Amino acid sequence: MYKPILACVLSSIFLTACEEPAIIPKPRTYPRVEFPARQYQTFVHSDCSYKFETPNYSIVEQDSVFFNEKAPNNCWINIKYPIFNGQLYCSYYPVRNREELDKFITDGHTIANKHTIKADYIEELLIDNGHSVYGTLFNIEGPAASGIQFYLTDSTRHFFKASLYFNETVNPDSIAPVLEFMKHDINHMLKTFRWEAK
Question: pLDDT of 38-71, one tens digit each?
């Protein structure tokens, strides 16, 4: 009487044991990023009409080339972030009249909006740090080449523009933690930005 039941139980155990285990794909992961402690230093260039604080893990270099031509002035700089493989490209223009300022501002919006082809969303935030520094910050969400751009002006004599790029293919999921970390540093730069009389 027990033999048929025992045979059924043993055969079900045997059949279950012979089945191959189900293969479950592991979720995609990205390398862990070790973020540095935040410390800042003031960047001042003797020829330039601006200064600001930048993190001590960044390197500021003068930019000498613009589309294979000489940069318009000595105040074009690149702020490199070697640990993040990124770079903030910064350009500066002296402003001579209102028409010129309007053109620079229009160009700033046009360049940021070129990323709408790949961006999921572009958020525009107005800047006023209380020291005659005004402008617009563009938070560009999605797989666009540049995640952050901004321009600054005093509305009369100065115009400063910057764009953040990474030296690799942008994957929004993998770059998101780094971008969030760098947004804090860029906001610090905007708060400490000052125009210098030259």
Answer: 999 999 998 899 999 999 999 999 887 655 567 7
User: What are φ and ψ of residue 39, in 5° steps?
Assistant: -140, 145
Answer whether 192's CB lies under 8 Å from 52's CB: yes
Name the band, by pLDDT with cuts 50, 70 and 90, for residue 195. very high
User: At residue 53, what is the residue type?
Assistant: E
CA end-to-end span of the chain? 105
Fold (topology level) of 40-195 = Protein Transport Mog1p; Chain A (3.40.1000)
The b/e string for 76-97 (b: 16+ C-beta within 10 A; e otherwise) is: bbbbbbeebebbbbbbbbebee
Residue that is written with structure tokens 């330039």 in the block = 48
